[in-house]
Amino acid sequence: MGLPSAHAAARYCKRKSSNMAPPWIVGLVWLICSSITQCESAKETNAVPNKSCNHRKSCQGITYDIREAVCCEDQLHSGQGLSCCGRQPYNPAAATCCQVGRGSTLSANITWGASETVSACCGLEAFNPLNQMCCDSAIVPKPVPMAQCCGKRAFDKEKQMCCGPKRNKMVLTRMSNNHQCCFHEQFDYRTQCCCKIGDGLKIQPKKSTCCEKESAHANDQLNKILRPSNVVTETVPDTQYCDKDSIDKDTHLCCGPVQNKKVLPRKSIHHKCCGQEQYDSKTECCCGNDTLQINPINSICCANELGVRPQIPIPQPKCTEPHTRLCGSSCYNPHELQCCESTTRHFNSGGCDATPTVYDPITQVCCEGCLSKKEPWIHQFHSSPGQHCCGTETYQPHHEICCDGHRHPKGEHSHCCGIHAYNINDLHMKCCAGTLYNLTSPGSNGNDAQCCGSILQKNQDVCCSGVEQEVRYSKESGHRCCGHLYYKTSLWSCCAERLSPLHQPGQAIMNNESRYQVSVNNLNTKDLCKEMNIGTVESVSLHSVVLREVLKIHAVDGSVKALASPYILRTPGRCNKPKLIPGRTYFFDEAHVFPGFIHDPPPSLHFIFSKCRHF
C-alpha cells in the first residue's frame, strides 16, 4: 500500500477530520505531523539540532522520526527498529540483510527469522556460524566445532583429509597423522611418495627411482633458496596466505572470519582488519559486543575496548582580529553573527546563544537546543515560567506523560514504552524493550504473549537470554540455549553461559542451561506479583552469589522490607550459575535470577507496583 505524499500529509495535518481516515493513515500522519511540528522552525532558521532533533530526518520532503519509520530508497516505511536492506525494510533483531556486489550492481536479500546479531552471510543467505559454515557459497552443517571447508563440504581435519585440485576436492578418512594427499588418494610419507608419472600423480615406494628423483629435485630447489647469492640479490616479498590466495601483507590485508576471508588492498601501514573492512588504527578502533564496528578512537566504545579514553588534542585557534571571539573551532564577530552550539549563523528572531534573550518566547520555544515555532492549534504551555520540556516541545506534567521526547495524554495507568504511552493493565498491549505491540488475540490472558528482546515471540520460537541481550531463534531439535546463543548439543558444551568445543580430551559433557532464563517482562501477572527480591551483585563464586542492598518486595500489598547484608544466594552447580556482573542490579527469588530491567531498577519497581496494585 502506498504512502501519502508530503503535500498531502501536510494538508492532512491541518484538517480536523482525521477520525474519518483509515487507521494506517492516521498513524502515519501522526508520525509525520508530530515530526514536522517539532523541528520545522529549526530547519527554517538553520538551528543546530540537539539530541531530540537528531531523531528527525527527511524522506522525499516528509520529515519523520527515525525511531518510528525508515526511508529506503525514497520510500517511507512505518515501524519501530527498522533498517534498510536495499529497497526493503527489515528489523535487524528478527532478520539479517545480506548484500553482494557484482560490478556496479548491488544485490540484497533478507533472511527472516535470523537475528543479525548472531548471523553471518554466505552470499545472499544468512546462517548461524556457531553451528553452520559457508563452503564455496553453500551453507553446510558443521560436523565438529573447528571444521574446515573442502569444496562445498565441511570436514573434520583431525579425522579427515581434503584432497584433490581446487575445483575437484574430495574428503578422505585420514588413515594416520603421517598420511598426506596424492590427488584423490593418500600416502604415508615415511614409506611412500607422490610421483608425477605422465600427466598424473601416482603413489610409489619411497626407494623407487621416481621417489629418488622427486627427492633430488626437492633438494635442488631448497639449495637454490638457501644459496647466499640468492639471499643477497633476490628480494622475497613478505607473503602470507589468505585462504588459498598468496598476498603481500605490506600491501594487502586478509580480513574476515575463518570461513569467509576477504583480500583488501591496504590503505596504509596503520590500517588493520575489522571484520571484512579495514580501519585506521591512529584515528579509529574496532569494537562491539557481538557485531564488530568501526568507531572514532575517542568514542565510548573505543574507550571500553582500549581501557582508557584516548585524549586527542584539538588545536584551538587564536582570534587575532579585533572584536572577534571563538565559536567552536573558528572565530566570529558577535556584532555580525551569533554562536549557537559551536556553530556560527546570521541573526534571527530566535536562536540558542548563551544569553537568555536570543529567542522570542512569545512566538517560539527552545527545548534541548531545538527551536520550534509556537503553533496556536497545538496545545503548548509556553506562558508559564519554569516550563518543562519534552523533547523539542513543552508539556504539562500533571496532564501529560513524556516518553523519550514525545508527549501523550496522561491516564491513570499510563506508562512509557519507548516513545509511546500505553495502559499497562490493557491485555491487548505488550511492551517489549521499548517496542509496543497491539495483541490481536491475547487469549485468556494477555500476559501469555512473550517478549524476546524487542521482538514478540511466537509459539514455535525459542528465546535465548544472556546478560546483555535476548535473541529469538526458530526451534530446532538437538539445540539448547547458552546465554543468548543457540547451540547444537552435539558440537558444543555450555557451562555458566560459556561454550566449549565438545569431546576434547578429559572434558566432561556439561549441557546445563542456567537458571538465567525468564525475563521479568515475560512473567505473567500472578508470578510478577509474588514476593521477589531486588539487589546489587557484589561478588560471584562457583557455588554462591553475594548481593548487597537487598530488598524484599511484595507488590500486591505494596510492602518493602530491607534484608540483612550481605545476602548469600546459593547456586546448585557451577554450570547452572547465571552469568552475573558485579555492580549490576537484578530481580531474583530462590529459583531464578531475572535478566529483565537490570539497567533501570527504579522505573522497574514502579512498573511492578503499578501493575500489581489492583491484582
UniProtKB/TrEMBL annotation:
<feature type="domain" description="Galaxin-like repeats">
    <location>
        <begin position="357"/>
        <end position="496"/>
    </location>
</feature>
<keyword id="KW-0732">Signal</keyword>
<feature type="domain" description="Galaxin-like repeats">
    <location>
        <begin position="57"/>
        <end position="196"/>
    </location>
</feature>
<dbReference type="InterPro" id="IPR056601">
    <property type="entry name" value="Galaxin_dom"/>
</dbReference>
<dbReference type="InterPro" id="IPR055284">
    <property type="entry name" value="Galaxin-like"/>
</dbReference>
<protein>
    <recommendedName>
        <fullName>Galaxin-like repeats domain-containing protein</fullName>
    </recommendedName>
</protein>
<feature type="signal peptide">
    <location>
        <begin position="1"/>
        <end position="41"/>
    </location>
</feature>
<dbReference type="Pfam" id="PF24748">
    <property type="entry name" value="Galaxin_repeat"/>
</dbReference>
